[in-house]
Amino acid sequence: MVLGQLGGSISRALQQMSNATIIDEKVLNDCLNEITRALLQADVQFKLVRDMQTNIKKIVNLDDLAAGHNKRRIIQQAIFNELCKMLDPGKPSFTPKKGKTSIVMFVGLQGSGKTTTCTKYAYYHQKKGWKPALVCADTFRAGAFDQLKQNATKAKIPFYGRGIGKLLGACKNARALLLEIGYGNAGKSYMESDPVKIAAEGVERFKKENCDLIIVDTSGRHKQEAALFEEMRQVSEATKPDLVIFVMDGSIGQAAFDQAQAFKKIVSVGAVIVTKMDGHAKGGGALSAVAATKSPVIFLGTGEHMDEFEVFDVKPFVSRLLGMGDWSGFMDKIHEVVPMDQQPELMQKLSEGHFTLRIMYEQFQNILKMGPMGQVLSMLPGFSAELMPKGHEKESQAKVKRYMTMMDSMTNEELDSTNPKLMNESRIMRIARGSGRQVRDVMEMLEEYKRLAKIWGKMKGLKIPKGGDMSAL
Ligand code: GDP
């Protein structure tokens, strides 16, 4: 995804600033200009970017900073905070409570991924113990109901909508049940097409069924379609949602602000979900949608499948964007895949700041186990932008394996040393020969090790922050 590029550009700008011997006005301006350019290229609204730049300059007054102040850190912190501010409207969205009926209405443009996202949202909560149900009030788009029905049946989530007057519950054989209840032979009475009525009926039915999360999908619409907007308002009035979620396609770019605002004017949007973040979405539109609706992004859609859905947290997200790594995501993954007995040791090694080739080897092993490379690697500080550019997961995986083969030809002493100078020319040649690679491949791997060792070295004494807040670094 292009958001990875944004992250890469921003972290490069910060890196350039870090390489400068003295941080003066020019270095700061260059860095900010670079970040501004990157944000604009990622479709973030111009006004937001300009405000951010002004705010950072206000906070980082180089003249007032006494010598000895760590200017780099202060600048980095200010950039981190401003990006977080852009994505965090300051008030959390309504969160459904288990056991208490909540009604959540989904709105968004046609094709934004709204129907898909409704099911993902239901499925996510179902896995966490909620009793969700889906109501399809999209009578505008032919096939919307069938799509919802298909997804809901797969996830065993009850649903209600046009063309079917009966609730289908968690059923093993949906087809048999459809026949049993007369779907297909359904008379006209079942063919209700008033979306407001369908929505109200569905909600009523599921309230009686004691569902605690009733999700209402509405017709997709375009900003100009006044009639559909009126319909959306009426559905909202009839169902009285606790939360209205605006679903937007991550790739709509600069249009995001106006679109989101148009929806917000009609219904009280309280949260945003950005879809298709696995594709070519520049992602900057998400920041604009937050600004337009003053509502937080709560999830990201990262694929067409039901479980390709990620909780969105501002701080870890910005950490990743800045190439600082996402500790909370990383820690979750560690807990998931690193064997229990190895976890404390790894944490200990991290906090000691010593980084040996063996640790690198072990991390590569974990990385290969962890599954979708791009996802996991972007959480690791230093691993994201350079070693593992987004969109090149296959090549990255091959590279990691290549590095590991070379490390297999090393001695224990070499693997456990924190000083790669130990390896003289003849050793490097032996390692290359032993692994069937070129000397330059070994050199490249050692360079990578040095780069990572430098980053990991900064973690010495570090207490891994809770919630992935990297601003503490
Ligand atoms: P709606 O018109 O807003 O209800 O949109 P749909 O839910 O029908 O989705 C439109 C298309 O986008 C479908 O082909 C979905 O499979 C696809 N889609 C939805 N969410 C995602 C996502 O997060 N990633 C990708 N790659 N495709 C998605």
TrEMBL record:
CDD domains the UniProt entry points to: SRP54_G
Domain of life of the source: Eukaryota
GO MF annotation list: 7S RNA binding; endoplasmic reticulum signal peptide binding; GTP binding; GTPase activity
Listed EC numbers: 3.6.5.4
InterPro entries, per database record: AAA+_ATPase, P-loop_NTPase, Signal_recog_part_SRP54_M_sf, Signal_recog_particl_SRP54_hlx, Signal_recog_particle_SRP54_M, SRP/SRP_N, SRP54, SRP54_GTPase_dom
Subcellular location per the Swiss-Prot or TrEMBL entry: Cytoplasm; Endoplasmic reticulum
Recorded catalytic activity of this chain's protein: GTP + H2O = GDP + phosphate + H(+)
Keywords, sorted A to Z: Cytoplasm, Endoplasmic reticulum, GTP-binding, Hydrolase, Nucleotide-binding, Ribonucleoprotein, RNA-binding, Signal recognition particle
GO terms under biological process: SRP-dependent cotranslational protein targeting to membrane, translocation
Domain SRP54-type proteins GTP-binding: 296-309
Gene Ontology CC terms: cytosol; endoplasmic reticulum; signal recognition particle, endoplasmic reticulum targeting
HAMAP family given in the database record: SRP54
Homology family: Belongs to the GTP-binding SRP family. SRP54 subfamily.
Subunit structure and binding partners: Component of a signal recognition particle (SRP) complex that consists of a 7SL RNA molecule of 300 nucleotides and six protein subunits: SRP72, SRP68, SRP54, SRP19, SRP14 and SRP9.
PANTHER family on file: SIGNAL RECOGNITION PARTICLE 54K PROTEIN SRP54, SIGNAL RECOGNITION PARTICLE SUBUNIT SRP54
Role, per record: Component of the signal recognition particle (SRP) complex, a ribonucleoprotein complex that mediates the cotranslational targeting of secretory and membrane proteins to the endoplasmic reticulum (ER). As part of the SRP complex, associates with the SRP receptor (SR) component SRPRA to target secretory proteins to the endoplasmic reticulum membrane. Binds to the signal sequence of presecretory proteins when they emerge from the ribosomes. Displays basal GTPase activity, and stimulates reciprocal GTPase activation of the SR subunit SRPRA.
Record-given protein name: signal-recognition-particle GTPase
Organism: Stephania yunnanensis
